[in-house]
Design brief:
Distance between the termini: 42 Å
Order of helices and strands: HEEEHEEHEHEHEHEEH
Strand content: 15-25%
Structural class: alpha/beta
Number of strands: 10
Length: 258
């Protein structure tokens, strides 16, 4: 009898586990976060942060084939309407290879994406990274940013002005960098800032961020913590999936939201 009950309990628990693993979540918002595009240098220690144009196009085709709708950054704001299967394609860092490798794919399929740029480094390079771990890459120039803006496909978000990790700063300084990034994106680059990304702040969390936000702040904030964003509920913080770093997890999450 004891063995029978134990077997029954295992079956019930397996059934419950299977339900949560297999159940669909069709109304969640997915944020796919990318960094650099092209072929990573041989000396790069962060090869999973790169994606080729060919692989990105295959991911775009997968999304289209399964009924996902890429959305601009503005649709993440509170009260904005979204399609039934929204996905935000977010590119962090403002790398020049976005313009040469990714943008032609976006133009080909006429789909929107969000670009997060450290405003004070336009036309420069990713000085916040150690060149012995990740060779420096050119960042987008102001002319290229203007061309992206004219396309109507790209919405813009801000990073800290120099791309620094604001989690390493005292609270007041971190808050000032957040607001400075938004200000410089609009005044220095002439781009409407529709969000902010904490990057490369891997240790960031929503509780820390909430303490730094000024009263009335409502722009979406991208975090690098993996997770799924419900269709309703949170309207400010958006977790991400990183296709290069977690390809199997990304495919699973897309399947669950099919």
């Amino acid at each position: 009898m004891t063995l029978y009950l134990l077997t029954a309990l295992v079956v019930v628990l397996a059934g419950i586990g299977g339900y949560f693993i297999l159940r669909r979540r069709p109304h969640a918002l997915l944020v796919l976060a990318y960094e650099k595009a092209g072929i990573p240098p041989k000396t790069s220690r962060f090869k999973t942060s790169w994606i080729s144009a060919q692989r990105f196009e295959k991911q775009v085709q997968f999304l289209r084939r399964h009924g996902f709708t890429p959305v601009p950054l503005g649709t993440l704001q509170p009260g904005a309407k979204r399609p039934s299967k929204p996905v935000l394609l977010a590119f962090l860092g403002g790398y020049q290879n976005f313009y040469s490798e990714i943008f032609p794919v976006l133009e080909k399929y006429k789909i929107p994406a969000a670009l997060f740029m450290p405003p004070s480094l336009a036309g420069s390079y990713n000085a916040w990274q150690n060149p012995h771990e990740e060779p420096w890459q050119n960042l987008l120039t102001e002319t290229e940013l203007k061309n992206l803006k004219k396309s109507g496909l790209i919405s813009f978000g801000a990073l800290a002005p120099l791309g620094q990790d604001v989690t390493q700063l005292p609270g007041e300084q971190a808050a000032a960098q957040l607001q400075e990034g938004l200000f410089r994106t609009e005044r220095q680059l002439g781009l409407k800032a529709e969000g902010f990304a904490f990057y490369p702040a891997k240790n960031w969390d929503e509780q820390k961020a909430a303490r730094l936000l000024p009263d009335g702040f409502s722009l979406p904030l991208i975090t690098l913590q993996n997770g799924i964003n419900p269709r309703t509920g949170k309207s400010l913080f958006f977790r991400t999936l990183q296709p290069g770093m977690h390809p199997l997890l990304t495919r699973y999450m897309l399947w669950k939201h099919r």
